[in-house]
Amino acid sequence: MGREIEEMDLKWDLFRSTVFVLLQILYWSDL
């Protein structure tokens, strides 16, 4: 069970990083 939660956290971190990068790209392309 502990391993599953860790894996989920890693996927969530990756997802957040991807969203952050996409937001940065959208923000800079608007400028």
TrEMBL record:
This is Uncharacterized protein. It comes from Nymphaea colorata.
